[in-house]
Amino acid sequence: MPAEQPFYQETQIANGPLVITHAMPTAQSVALGIFVDVGSRDESDTQAGITHALEHMLFKGTKQMDVHRLAEKLDALGGNANAFTSRERTCFHLHVLHEHWREALSLLTSMVREPALPEEEWQRERGVIFSEMAMVEDTPEEWVMDQHVEALFPDHALGRPVLGRHDTLNRFSVHNLRTYLQQHYSAGRLLLSAAGHIDHNQLVEAVAALDWQPDSAYNTIRQPPTGFTNGIQALPRADEQAQMIVSFDGITANSDERPQAWLSNQILGGGMSSRLFREIREKRGLAYSVGSHLSMLSDAGIWSMNCGMDPERAADCVTVIRDVLEHFSESISVEEIERCKRQLEVQFRMGLDSVEGQMLYLGGRQDEAALLSPLQWLGRIAEVDVAMLKDWCEIRLSQPGLWSIAAPEQALDKISDRIRA
């Protein structure tokens, strides 16, 4: 029987980034991504928002081309160009036809290695970020999540919004952006991932031929959060819908307990047959939006349940959620586990068809020394039994959680009293 082909190949470029690829020979396209090991948690309080601001500014031209020429070249490739900033990562990525990968690589690496950072563009882009912040303010689900995370991690960088604050953004100059770039965008903090129709050795050769910024003497030491806040956070907000989030201590991004966490989350709030969806929406019609999700970081994690409902019915939602959580661990059944194993198998295997999805998956290599393939993870998921899952959930849900409720002021007392009951 032939040996199974490795899921990915990786090569550390001398004085350059780590290059990691997943070959998909029958694909018509390639997705390229540069992951920078820096996020909003690496900022000081006076730097709040600078990581995200720099992400925006890397699209504003390079030393060889201005913002309009760069935009034209990106559009000419006909694919998708995007970026994101999280609490621990910044990522720039392109998805193009496979024959255009060299041009895509050239554009992507030029943006990261030699951005122009023009002063006039920063003055304009700051206003764009203010508009983005206003959009979050106008989106109750996003706004309450920002408030919730801030309450979970008070006086810690993890608790600050990724977008930053108006006062800090107003103080940033191009000099501040460039200094931050030099400190955090050195070669040793970069991972270049590619998935699709691409040859690993050819990509390595192309990346090795570029000049990379040597590692900076600047060293970021991430301070782990000191604890996990619990209790009730009541947030007056005059919207038609109330928003509710409850979170419990979760797992880290490299935890061996991921199979238990994925299965538990799927059973609790991961689909139409999940406990929360069935009890809150299907049986009682209390809410349209209800579910659960996992957030995993290098040294912390949260397991959250969220719900959006009429303020007058929010207290009833609290009762149902508390009842579901109280009896969840002891009542997990073999049938539920098997159903959710099949659901995760579908998600993982269908995800293997996504070029962009696999490129992003490879970025997880920054969280651990080696990656398991999605199929290897399915093997570990298959090994989880009822007793393992019950024990895992009992440990997580027996801890006190943090409830955040955003609702009109006159409804908050009733909702909070129901949580305390």
Plain-language structure description:
The protein is α+β, with helices and mostly antiparallel strands and 421 residues long. The chain has helices at 50-57, 67-76, 101-113, 119-137, 140-152, 166-171, 174-184, 200-208, 258-269, 275-282, 314-331, 334-351, 355-362, 374-382, 386-397, 409-420; strands at 9-12, 18-23, 29-36, 80-85, 90-97, 190-196, 231-236, 242-249, 287-296, 301-309, 402-407. The strands form two sheets. A six-stranded mixed sheet has the order 1-2-6-3-5-4. Strands 7-11-8-10-9 form a five-stranded mixed sheet, with helices on both faces. It is globular.
**What proportion of the residues form beta strands (DSSP E)?**
15-25%
Q: What would the principal axes of the Cα set say about the shape?
A: globular
Q: Measure the end-to-end span.
A: 61 Å
Q: Which regions have little confidence, pLDDT < 50, spanning 5+ residues? A: none
Q: Count of DSSP E strands?
A: 11
Number of helices: 16
Q: What is the arithmetic mean of pLDDT?
A: 95
Amount of helix: 40-55%
Task: Give me the strand/helix succession.
Answer: EEEHHEEHHHHHEHEEHHEEHHHHHEH
Strand order of the largest sheet: 1-2-6-3-5-4
Return Rg in Å.
Answer: 23 Å
Class by SSE composition: alpha+beta
Describe the largest sheet.
6 strands, mixed
